[in-house]
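ok so heres the complex, two chains, lmk if somethin looks off
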Amino acid sequence: MERDVTNILVVGIGGQGVMTATEILAEAAIALGFDAKKTEVAGMAQRGGVVSSHLRFGPRVLSPQITAGSADLLLAFEAAEALRWCHYLKPGALVLMNTAKLVPPVVNIGLYDYPADPVAEIRAQGHDVHAFDAMDIAVTLGDVRLGNSVMLGAAADHLPFPAEQLLAAIVKRFASRKPQLVDLNRRAFEAGRAADAAAGHKEKQAA
Amino acid sequence: MAAVMPAPAQTRLFLSGNEAVARAVWESGCRVAAAYPGTPSTEMLEEISGYPDIYAEWSVNEKVSLEVAIGAAYAGSRAFCAMKHVGMNVASDALMTLTLTGVIGGLVIAIADDVGLSSSQNEQDSRYWGRFAHLPVFEPADSQEAYEMTKAAFDLSERFQCPVILRLTTRICHVKALATVGERSEHAAAGFKKDVARWVMTPAGAVRRIPLMFEREQALRAEAEASALNFVDAGTDARVGFVTSGPAYMHVRESFPDAPVLKLGLSCPLPLEKIRAFAATVDKLIVAEEVEPLIETELKANGIACVGKEILPRQGELAPHVLKPIIAKLLGEPAREAIAPPAQVFPRPPTMCVACPHLGVYYTLSQLKNITIAGDIGCYTLGAGHPWNALDTTISMGASMGIAMGLDKGRGEADKDKRILAVIGDSTFMHMGMQGLLDIVYNKGNVTVLILDNRAVGMTGGQNNPGNGRDIHGEAAPRVDFAKLVESLGVKPERIHVVDPYLLPVLFKTLRDEIKVPEVSVIITNQPCVLVDDYKKQQPFEVIDDKCTGCGNCVEVGCPAIHVMRREKAVKPSGKEVELQFVQIETAACTGCGLCVQPCAPDAIVKVAPGAPVSILKRH
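and the predicted structre for the whole thing:
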């Protein structure tokens, strides 16, 4: 395997903006001169199915796929999805997760149970977990779709480049497409960053 | 898509394989591009439609798209056509004779295989078409190669006057990677030149073209032997060496950085002598190809010893986690320490959207007894899943018609009272369903056909089609009238009904009446896909908690906005134990379609008051 390649796995469900978030992470890495590849297993779901987006960046990236057991960071947009994918992490690596639960119809109609405590199950596997309600933060800021920038903010202090690089990539994207949303997303990014720091502080105290 | 200014030459762009192909098609001076949408190929034509100076169309099916491209290439224009793997099954009638006529303008056919089955009904290997039709096949391994090989394919096509296949897979089409792009060059159309012996393929003409096809194949093999796209990456550990192509190349390099690798970019015809020379430099030759053993079989037939599908899987991707343990075992090395097993988490299958017009159709079908439903390819294939379980067969585009006819004519004694239905979407009907319906009419089948007209190719992202009156650019286009169309095929006017699928009682009555009639009926539903602009949201609904009796009727609709918040066991007056399901509606997601309101006996579902805040359901 190529050394010096950073593997980030971004997971969630269709429609949450997982692929966009990964793309922004990729753009930040590329702006710093890294090679990067991004790939998804998105299935046939336009909406509601499992989405896992792989980002690999470094001096040179060959295979676009992250192998189970080799991810440096898991960024999970939904609680059960964090649990589903945490075996992709290196031993002891960090999980940044939204605690909001999005319950699918198969659970609603009673065919399956939703995991009782995903955070505890992930911790039991030996991973550090920074858990926070990104959906709540986004809704408080005025739009559930800001969850994407909240999650990116949470990741910002766990990357092999400065947080400002990631914020710059978000700003660049919105400046060219929806300039009126730049400030709101900047605030969502900072709120996510703060939520991660608070969750990290709590994690340390517990340990 | 409106025409945009293409990025300047020599810029490095973060492109998916599909986007990289589209850029190269434009740079190559291609003048005509056609496709029918299909995952993972769809974005090629979507992207191309945004470039200037190129005619792009959504064709009604892959065969027509290929024929449009062939005609353009006969006229001397560079032409392009893209399809998913199964699309070539439809288009192959044209392909297998196209290889005899050849082309004047360069013609590139991109076929996107769904290795790993992310969104397809099979995993067939399109490289067979190169062998079957004696045509060259390029296999890129990432976006940069997809770009470069598309350009090389146009050049090769014109030099050899034959179409060229560009074989992609999901892991090329949908992977984003950096690619450096270049300049566009114009290629004016040479003009169509009358040549009956070449363009009119009668037996007498074809018999003279076959030897030319084999001569061309010989010349192409020499081309592959010399091609810089078939190259060796030297390695220091020659215990195993790999012959590989496409995305498997990246996985091999990732997994075995020290092993020698012969990478095939122009993989058909196979450069046998280059491979033979490479084989002599390694202890053991491994063929890593997705998915069928094509290269391997040819090598073995030519006396080149190799190992392939005896040890490597014959389905799915050859990703590092697949390759590494198998090769370690071959070399007698210990496997890497086991990683933690995945946690057991409920499956999250794709769902129909909130307020999808298909929900009403499948809810109604799930209420009907003693029926068999032949289904088709599209979002509505999801009707086979929970909670509806209202679809019994799916095999190929348009097949619901013929399958239903066969279920009718081939019915066993036990099925003699069964009603046979067929469910097909608007775009699938126009793709390949019309002929099947004509067959049912002509041969007096007893089938009730549902055409779910949602005015879009929903599954692939809502592309325009002849049923919605818009072309690939969103401009106005003639619109098919499905009722008139089926009437002209011979369905009796009194057996044709256009129904709003949100009106459940009307839909139910129409269906119940028509399945009883012993002849072909067609029921057309007429509400748009909720993901296209035609769909208009309405004020959402909410549940009045005090009124909800937990009957669960609304849950049976299958809308993802309806959530069971609490379950309770209860005993009915009859003594039967039932599970009550008390629900709420995620009002932030609800678009007010009103489907769930209709089966709600206690009137517990009401419109949210205008101006009231909408809620996102939270469970902690």
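quick notes: Chain A touches chain B through 61 residues (CB under 8 Å). thats all i got rn
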